[in-house]
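Pipeline run #58 for the internal structure catalog. This entry was flagged by the ingest filter as a single-chain record with no existing model, so it goes straight to prediction. Upstream metadata was stripped on purpose; only the residue string is passed forward. Reviewer on rotation: M.T. Logging verbosity set to normal.
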Amino acid sequence: LPDAFLVPRGSTAVDVAFKVHTDLGNHFIRAINARTKMVVGRDHPVQDGDVIKIVAKV
């Protein structure tokens, strides 16, 4: 199973990326909702139960 991160209400996809690792947040490109396969941007608010894949530059 993937790691789970608890973030405060109102957090965005890029906030989650920074919570995982600073470099991931700094090089954030987009996030993908793992359930709907919808591409979401850095300002997309995450909701309770969301599973997102973070895409970042190498």
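catalog note: Residues 13-56 form a domain with the Ubiquitin-like (UB roll) fold (CATH 3.10.20.30).
catalog note: Residues 13 and 42 are 5 Å apart (CA to CA).
status: ready for reviewer M.T.
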